[in-house]
Every structure is written in C-alpha cells, then in structure tokens.
Design a protein that fits this description.
Layout (H helix, E strand, L loop, with lengths): L2 H21 L57 H4 L12 H24 L12 H9 L7 H14 L1
C-alpha cells in the first residue's frame, strides 16, 4: 500500500473524529458494515445531511411537533420524503421462512391432534346392527347377487348350450 495514501486516510479519519466530537457532524464510513437505515452518501447533494431511510410510520407516536406526520419543526426533509412519510403506502412485516415453517408445523400438529381426539372420543352407535339370516334374506326377497362381466358371459353361454 502506498504510504502517502495510508497517511492521508489516517489524517482524514482523525479529522473526522475531531469534527464529530466538536460539532456533532456525522460521517459515514466506507466499510460494508453501515448503520441500519443509512444509505451511501450521494455526491450530488453536496453538504445536505445523509438522513436515515426510516419510515415515519415506524417512529413512536408521541413527542412530535407535527403529530400527524411525526416530524419536528426544522427537521431536515429526507431525499425520499414522498416514500417515507405517513401518507406513503403501509409497510407490511412478513415473517421469515423459519417462522413460516413453525406456523405450518403448528397448524399440522393442531389439525392432527383434533383428528386424533375426535376419532378416539367418538360415541358408540346407539343401535345394534341388524342380522339377516340366509345371506341377508337374498333368497327370501328374490335378490340377485352382484354380477361381473365374466359371470354374465358364462351364464349366457350356459343358457345357449342348454338349448
């Protein structure tokens, strides 16, 4: 690494720390681990502050000068004000896949438990099944047994052979 570049970056970081301590000026680091809600500083906005990208709907409800929009008097306006303010579309929270899996598992376990309890707690029949002798009174009532295609062909061929 070039020594001149290294010494310049060390001096710049010292200056930033001093300015931040004295005037409360916030500087964003170039590291990939940035604070939540902050975006990369835009070189086109000049000295305008790099404000957090936080939805006003997520702010606490009380303690604001403008209670409807949850802003204080003189507060700088974010660059994406029309997207972040209270009149923007509502932000919906959606759970992660782990939580969704737990919800599905809970639903299936609950459904299985209800099925098991109902099957075990089912009441006995209040009657006794009827018993019919002679194959369910088939002969007495003149019923015909259920036929298959093979049995009907066989019966037809036997009747033709008898004639």
């Amino acid at each position: 690494m070039n020594r001149a570049l290294f010494s310049r970056s060390v001096q710049a970081s010292k200056q930033r720390r001093v300015l931040a301590a004295l005037g409360g000026i916030r500087f964003e680091s170039a590291s990939p681990y940035k604070k939540k809600y902050y975006v990369d500083p835009d070189p086109q906005i000049g000295d305008y502050p790099n404000l957090p990208q936080q939805f006003y709907e997520d702010r606490p409800q009380r303690g604001w000068w403008d209670r409807q929009n949850r802003r204080n008097f003189g507060e700088p306006v974010p660059e994406q004000m029309e997207v972040l303010n209270m009149w923007a579309p509502t932000q919906y929270w959606s759970p992660g896949w782990k939580m969704v899996g737990k919800m599905w598992a809970g639903f299936i376990v609950t459904l299985g438990t209800v099925y098991f309890v109902i099957s075990k707690a089912r009441a006995e029949r209040p009657y006794v099944r009827a018993f019919y002798p002679y194959g369910g009174l088939k002969d007495e009532l003149g019923g015909v047994p259920t036929r298959t295609m093979a049995s009907s062909i066989e019966e037809a061929s036997l009747s033709v052979a008898k004639k």
